[in-house]
Amino acid sequence: MESTKINIGFYKNNLELLADYFKLIEKIERELGEKNIIKEVPILKKGEIDQKIPQNSESVAEMEEKINRKIKKTIAKRIKLYFYSLSQKYHLNSVENLIIACIIYSDIKSRSFSRPLLEIVAKGDMIKVMEYRRFLLPESRLIKNRIIVHDPHYRCPEYKIERTILEKLLSRDDHIKINKEKSCKIRRILSPKQIYKYLSEYVVGQEEAKKVLSVALYSHYQRIKFGKKDKGNLQKANILLIGPTGSGKTYICQCLAKILEVPLAICDVTSYSETGYVGGKVEDMLEQLLRAANYDLKKAEHGILYIDEIDKIACRHPGGAHFTNRDISGEGVQQDLLKIIEGSEIHHWFKRTVMNTQNTLFIAGGAFVGLESITQERRCTKKIGFSSGQDKSLRDFYKIYEGITTEDLVKFGITPELIGRFPVVVTLNSLSKEDLIQILLKSKEAMLKKYSDLLNLSHIKIEIRPQTLGLIAEDAISRKIGARGLTATMEKLLTPLIFDFYSKSDKKIILDENYVQKNLCYKNLKEA
Questions:
Q1: Domain boundary among 371, 395, 427
Q2: Please, how many CA atoms are within 13 Å of residue 136, restricted to the half-sphere of its CB?
Q3: 236, 359 in Cβ contact below 8 A?
Q4: Residues 423, 438 within the same domain
Q5: Statement to judge: residues 211 and 288 lie in one domain
Q6: Which of 361, 396, 427 is the last residue of a domain?
Q7: Using CB atoms within 10 A of its CB, is residue 36 exposed (0-12), middle (13-18) or buried (19+)?
Q8: What is the dihedral of CA 73, 75, 78, 80, to 10 degrees?
Q9: Residue 307 and residue 303: Cα distance in Å, rounded?
Q10: Cα atoms found within 13 Å of the Cα of residue 494, Cβ hemisphere only
Q11: Which CATH number does the domain housing residue 199 bear?
């Protein structure tokens, strides 16, 4: 007798998966001796699931196996189901998944089971019923993560699925298919001078940093495009940006992604912790990059992942000292970052995606407050007497980040292993008065032009006298937050004028020298 292959389908949405779970639940109830079973699958929405349960001889074990095989085929089709993603996110097993399905079934059906919930899940095995009680305890994954909610004060609590989770589980349109192309063609690679030219249209100042970044970006994508032709394995060069707040670290990364037309994900590393502790895992950064690429896996693998505030995860005890207390948000995160940065295949819970980070460019940035003192200490260790004072170059506010070495970063609290993953170190200087004036007037995204366009919507014209530009720039410098200080200064100047604008007949706002000196802290800056 020839064996016939049964074509097992896949799930297109959560409702189809729940429909199979409902058939399994009713099959279990029938086998446990339930007599009055309504043999229709419960209607979730009008016209959504309105099928009769086919009478077949499949056992409970065969139905469970069929569900598992269809789930595997759904994963192979690169289709995301919220039910499955929820299970993977909180590491739920098959018993917990069946508990969720039973509660949804009871809620949709508006009826209670003839037997206790856990007896249905355990298929009548009383030994397993006692074992499965742990899945409904307050410290269980289902209760702790608020997947299931209940009132513990009642003697027989009624379990419910959390409302927002239930809405997603009953949604037909929640699935997202990942585009997995056979190859990802890289467009024409710009030369370093072309990249530098485009950067200069948006980024003011930072000339040396722009040159280094232009060459690094060019080399990286050249390696991706032509590296396969060479027998040797060319290692990628990730980038570390060091500069004070407001110097343009994040903005430069946004401009690079815009110029090269690659996806960019900006992640704040302070929200992550070592795997197994409270907080997100570092692998979650890849999900943000995949989302930025519109779930195009190959495109995401060639994107840019910017890790912001990298200095905030410095070791509490730099220098390699060993302490009993584990540093889960500092050195622990640094150790977890090594795997994804060096270039390897990362398995993650979202859609069971396997993402290769070998061609992903990682850029880390941070202000590294206090690093300049470490650099100065290293340079001045051999000076004694009257020569022990700092050099003029060290006192120069705009060059405090020059001359940083690996030794300085290790003393700051960054592990040598992580520093080794960022061979290209780029230092950004604080913005000068002239730089801030150019940001106001001459850059492609000039701040004054943005304010003018915004006020034009209300038929308000703005005029800034040339002699006031220097005062605005100096006030922004006094705030010590870089280019962000310009926004704070302009808001302080324009807020009272816009507030009183409609009470005046003149439809023009003029910022002159007297008004700026009266409303800003320029006098205090000058006195200091």
A1: 427
A2: 24
A3: yes
A4: no
A5: yes
A6: 427
A7: exposed
A8: 120
A9: 13
A10: 19
A11: 3.40.50.300
One domain for residues 296 and 340: yes
- How far is the CA of 6 from the CAs of 3, 9, 61, 72, 98, in angstroms? 9, 9, 17, 15, 25
Task: State how far the Cα of 512 lies from the Cα of 119, in Å rounded to an integer.
Answer: 80
Please give the angle made by the CA atoms of 305, 309 and 311, to the nearest 5 degrees: 120
State both tokens at 277: 């502790």
pTM of the entire predicted model: 0.61
Give the contacts of 71 (CB within 8 A, at least 6 positions apart): 11, 17, 81, 84
Give me 171's structure tokens.
């949604």
As for how many domains the chain has, the answer is 3
246 found inside a domain: yes
| Mean pLDDT calculated for residue range 402-411 | 82
* pLDDT at position 422: 92
Contact status, residue 427 vs residue 211, Cβ threshold 8 Å: no
Kindly state the helix (H) or strand (E) to which residue 363 belongs, with its residue range: strand 361-366
The pLDDT of residue 363: 93
Distance CA 354, CA 402 (A): 40
Q: For residue 112, is pLDDT > 80?
A: no
pLDDT in the model for residue 362: 93
Query: Which is nearest to 499 in space by CA: 471, 460, 526?
Result: 460
pLDDT digits (tens, 9 = 90+) for 192-249: 899 999 898 888 888 888 999 999 988 888 888 776 555 456 678 899 999 888 888 9
Residue indicated by tokens 């700092």: 390
Q: Taking the mean position of all CA atoms in its chain, how far away is CA 498? A: 37
Q: Residue 178: name the closest of 339, 354, 359 by CA.
A: 354
Q: Which structural domain, as residue segments, surrounds residue 464?
A: 433-527
CA-nearest of 118, 113, 149, 145 to 132 is 118
